[in-house]
Amino acid sequence: MSTIVKFFVAPDDASAALAVGTGPGRAFKSLSLGNFDAEEAVVEWECLFSGGSFEELLGAGEPRIIAGEGDDGCVVFALSDSLVDALATSEPSRLHEVAVAWARQRAEDGEDIASVVAGEMLEDLGTLAGGREEHGHGLYCWVA
Q1: How much is the mean pLDDT over the chain?
Q2: How many CB atoms lie within 10 A of CB 28?
Q3: Residue 66 burial (CB count, 10 A)
Q4: Could you read off the pLDDT of 122-141 as tens digits, one per residue?
Q5: pTM for the model
Q6: What is the C-alpha separation between 66 and 55, in angstroms, rounded?
């Protein structure tokens, strides 16, 4: 499980990869979130938005690692275009629906994430995702 999770907007993979050692810092518009497995979460969120399966997304290489080690060190990964689009364009009621379903999934695995907190996370991510389009940037995540 990650202890530091920062989602951020960057112009491209090469720029996003520069954040691997120290995080996005002030160079990129970012959102800091708490203690959860971000790589697993983005796949679960995409499944909940699209109805796809976790195994299919993992088999397709999601989330796409941009830089880092993954197990012991920091990692930067890209969120899929379909997830970013879903976050950016979903109505608040849909974000809430996904958040409640995700919190329920996490509870089944013994992880306590309140649905209100999950909803705030997805709303904030939706705002961040919506702002990236004005410059043609992607949405990334740095975990440590």
Answers
A1: 90
A2: 20
A3: 23
A4: 999 999 998 776 667 899 99
A5: 0.90
A6: 20
